[in-house]
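User: I'm curious what two different proteins look like when written out as structure tokens. Can you demonstrate?

Assistant: Sure. I'll show them one after the other, since each token string lines up with its own sequence. Here's the first protein:
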Amino acid sequence: MKQLIAMAIAAILLSSCGTYKQLPSTGYAPNSDTSITQSLFSDRSSTISEEGIQKILDGHYKLPQQLRVAIVKLDNPQSRNRDWWNDEAYLKNQQSYLDLFADKFKSSPRVTKTSIIPDLLVSKTPSFTNIREAAVRMQADIVVVYAISSDIYARYKLFTKPDIKAFATTQLIVLDVRTGLVPFSTIVTKDVLSQKKKEEVDDAETRNRIQQEAVLLTINDIGEKIKTFLDTP
């Protein structure tokens, strides 16, 4: 009897072993290296190769000690949509901002030359390639690209002068002409609240003054950041 029971158990075990199926391998090993070191996404519009991205991110960059600086101003959409060419105050302000940026860089002992890239060398909507090539033609080591946007708000009060508030946002980048890298960038926004002064002829003069004050605040702030950047070894 005991022998019959043992034989039955053996038969069951053998049949279960015969129906066992091995699961397919997933190809994953617990100790395999799964680190991702480059992009796995296909981007045909990219202007930088995967090899170039790796070199840029793993490489060491240092700004030249002696710098020839070229400066270019980009028009913001607000100015392109309005006829500013007949506005004398606007044109004078834009020139003063450009000169002020040039002075900020001239104050650094590292800067040996500053120049302004004329509009003739860049398109109305320039690309980095366009700007870089224009800077090459002017033999500049770095090109400073900036854009300024500003606007006015007025809050009227009964029996008193209205409060006029202006805000300005200035964006600036430094583009290394040799490498195409951007070692410095900043965005600064400032606002000014004021009222019309007795000596001002009309509201337009007041608005222009307040708006200019807001822009100058952003430029002065950026000037301090530029000084720190250039003074860093």
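Here's a second, unrelated protein for contrast:
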Amino acid sequence: MRAMNIGIFDSGIGGMTLLHQAMVLMPRENFIFYADTDHVPYGTKTREQVITYVDEVIRFMADHDCKAIVIACNTATAVAAELMRSKYQPIPIIGIEPAVKPAVAESEGKRVLVVATPLTVHENKLQKLVERVDDEHLVDLMELPGLVEFAERGEFVSDSVTAYLREKFLGYTLERYGELVLGCTHFNYFKDSFRALIPPQIHIIDGSLGTVRQLMRVLDARHELLEPIADRSVSWEQYKNDICVRYFESGREITDSAKLETIRQLHERLEKMRKI
């Protein structure tokens, strides 16, 4: 019998953050990663456009023997996850969302800053999440649309990135904050840039690890989880040459050696960012 796949997708390279974490914890699995580069970024599109894009991707995943599908995009999760679960059952569809709940729990009364795309910030799903967990009204939301564009250009550490973030932080007394929530998977590439600008007491938190843990729980309950690695300290370096991943751009498989080398470099960066 042909081995089933785990499908992970995003509008662009941001979802590789979640793929990378999944590769570390589930190195025996087969993965399909789909970057919808024809339509990136999702965060500035309309709800109707995003729903159409996500439907196309999940149909592709279903046709490619995926036993589970992960929406590695906060915007797509907020807009389309529930609709897709209804349409494509019984395939489990796991979505990512900003890690607001653990951030509020760990903030010890300090403020929490959630940075995300404009559509995620204004979507009802995030508003309801904040209302549910933010009893003391500690959470502030900030839109960072430009950071997705920097990421898609492969520009992670530069004077332009620093200037963009510094301008966005103007007006915020960062000493009052205890948690910075990265509410877009693209933002994980910039952990070092964030770290250089924010006070040391601020913790940086994202939803990738929690989402992969949920994926593992779902697969385990269905008796479809292959030899997970329980130790978070395991290095991606130990398994990187043995992990089976096929990469697609809006349905077109990536076979070009130059593009595959770029992907390898992105994984190298994500491994560094995973340790910040």
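A detail about the second structure: The two ends are 40 Å apart (CA to CA).
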